[in-house]
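Contributing new records

If you add data, match the layout below exactly. Sequence lines come first and carry their own label; structure lines follow with theirs. Keep one chain per record. Anything else will be rejected by the validation script.
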Amino acid sequence: MPNINYSNQTLGRGELRFSKFTTPTSYIPAGFEYLGNTTEFSMTVQAQMLDHYSMDHGIQEKDKSIPTRVDRTGKFTADSISITNLGRFFFGDALTVTQTSSTAVSETLPPVIPGFSYQLGITANRPAGVKGVANVAITSKTAGVDFVFDAARGIITILAGGTIAAGATPTVTYDIVANSYDQIISGNVPVVGALMFVADNPEGANVDYLMRYVRLVPNGDFSLKAENAWQQLPFTVEILRAPGMAAIYANGQPYTS
């Protein structure tokens, strides 16, 4: 019977943590943030080889093979739908919008269609409108009969069957409530930084992995609505090599000889 070592089987678990760089060209982690629960994380390493064959006698025989290229990638799925994870998925940053109060704001809606909804407060400088309004009114119209509004979202809906006719341009007055809210503005540049996997295996030795230079790229569907399924954010990780560094550092736990 062969002498087989069965003691190294591992059931992998662990946390993923991501850090931006202190400056874009420093490659120095500014501090690692826990990405929340990740349902999977895997790495793929593929090498491209250049083969050489001896062809002087008989059949061709391979006598040399050298690597000419290596690609290192990974992928993970996060079901922690945090504002920062959403920002990474949309190539953007998580922002905090601070809204100041204002009273008796007057706004004329575009030609309305009964049954349609309209976001209040949209301007060139405020493309997403206002969040948090009060005292919403339309002159000579009745809330609940002619229109309804979502105060938190700043959305007004013209009711079908009310007295506001299609094509009308009613003027809405409202107060803006002082508040703050999170916002993500999508971008077109992938997030770069360092990625750390901190192992916590129920079975097998813990090996931590540090990737000093990675690019996070969204990869797949983000289902905002699904039956019996949690929302998940799928990412591909491009594992790159920063100048003077290795691409991956796999570290076991400290011990005393």
